[in-house]
Amino acid sequence: MPITEFLSIRLLPPHTVSSLFVVTFLGKVSRLQAARSGYPVLYFQDTSSPDILYLVSGWESKHAHEAWIVGEQNQELMKEMQGAGEVKELMHLEIDFSAIPKDAERMSREVLVEHGKADLKGLGGESNLNIMTDTNCIWESTAKSLEKEGTYRLRVYSMQEVSGKDVGHSSTKDSDGVLNMVAFHP
Q1: Is residue 129 pLDDT above 80, yes or no?
Q2: Which of 20, 76, 111, 165 shows its CA 20 to 30 Å from the CA of 176?
Q3: H or E element: which one contains 20?
Q4: pTM of the full predicted structure?
């Protein structure tokens, strides 16, 4: 069954999402990984921690992704990334990546059910701001992680106005276990 890779990366100072190295590097990752997996790579930036990036992509299986991880091309990419960023978390979700809208401009990942208390520090903080509303959700799926116990929900949101307000300026509310992301294109 095809799966969805969900990788979080923390950029290290002085690097930002707009740094020439980061833009060039992520473009290279996209080209090489897509050539290997056959799936496009989507990038998102955490809305409350701009130094946290998320790579979301598909693989035919967890095994196929693991073969890429230990392979020469990926190992070279990991060496190249040293000093600019560090991998914080890797999950494989039981979601067929081909079902996710590829023009997504906003996405959220929410912990629905978990075994014990979640360690949310690796997910961008103990509490994140939830700026999306159900009314502009255009796609969602609930799935289990292949690495850890728990159930997660991915949601994709449109950028259209809701109740006369731009989504990016909607009121915020605390929501434990929710990561909110905005797309960017290196």
Answers
A1: no
A2: 165
A3: helix 20-37
A4: 0.81
